[in-house]
Amino acid sequence: MFKQLFAVAACALAITSTPAISAQQNGPIVIKFSHVVADDTPKGQGALLFKKLVEERLSGKVSVEVYPNSTLFGDADEMQALKDGKVQMLAPSLAKFGNYTKQLQVYDLPFLFDDLDAVNRFQKRAKGRQLLRSMEDKGITGLAYWHNGMKQLSANKALYMPADARGLKFRIQPSDVLSAQFNQLSATPQVLPFAEVFKALQTGEVQGAENPWSNIYSKKLNSVQPYITETNHGVLDYMLVSNPTFWYSIPHATRVVLEGIIDEVTYSVNRQAEEANQADRNRILASGSSQIITLDDQQRQAWRDAMKPVWAQFEKEIGADVMQAAQVVNRKSRN
Ligand code: LMR
């Protein structure tokens, strides 16, 4: 008898504690949108605009809860939470999908994209669009690409030439390409969740990092990094994702409205990202916290030459076709 009661209680507990992955049929569909950056960043603003437009257009049908700053889930557990139905929307950086597809590593290759316009062109073309659907069999559906910005190298010492980075420990996102990039400089890469970057820089656990201006400023990384070199050596971009079981269980008419809203938000995020990053660059400059080092052509070429061997190391995993498609979107002349 006791055993039976225990079994019934355990079953009831399992039902109540395991969230259903499909969109609920009674009452409003709840979309929990978790991310790791501050509200005042391109992604943070995009999440809030998504919530606002859903409230305006799908009131009573869909409600959106936004959890910024790793307050619900962080780098270590957000993808599992998406698969388990504990969260319905994420926008991780493209560097964080390495366990699901190797093709997205193309975005981490140093000095591949000249600027965000080039990234935009790649994402609008066939290969870029194809990558959005490259993880459906792994329980991740890509809904859109959102930009942040080009990454800058920061450190506790001035970095003018690649040799200046030798021996330093740099925080990286969990990406084999980024690890190889710092190995190429004879520096040490150290994977850390975004939520731990400030502390790791402050305590000296790592001495440097690579981030776009918006992430540096919104997380006050400049207050613990006296030197920032304007390398623009890589891109930090996001994929807005959902769980396909959840997404395709949303009634068709509602889903169409959501997709329209996502298009609108994507346009807004991507149009404003560069400006937002430049504004944060100027705020850092005005704060006087850090010296911003700009590179002349020769210095920039030295960084490019030092990091470029990484391309060949990953060509097989990424696919020569994807890399070729990414290279042709650049319009500036280069060596
Ligand atoms: C990082 O970990 O540095 C970034 O992916 C954080 C973010 O979401 O912009």
TrEMBL record:
Mind listing the UniProt keywords for this protein, alphabetically? Signal, Transport
Q: Per the record's keyword annotation, is Glycosyltransferase included, yes or no?
A: no
- Gene3D superfamilies the UniProt entry points to: Bacterial extracellular solute-binding protein, family 7
| Highest rank taxon of the organism | Bacteria
Q: Which residues form the signal peptide?
A: 1-22
Q: Does the keyword Signal apply?
A: yes
Give one Pfam hit by family name: DctP
Q: Which GO terms describe its cellular component?
A: outer membrane-bounded periplasmic space
Annotated GO biological processes are: C4-dicarboxylate transport; transmembrane transport
Q: What protein family does this chain belong to?
A: Belongs to the bacterial solute-binding protein 7 family.
Name the UniProt record assigns to this protein: C4-dicarboxylate-binding protein DctP
- Species: Pseudomonas segetis
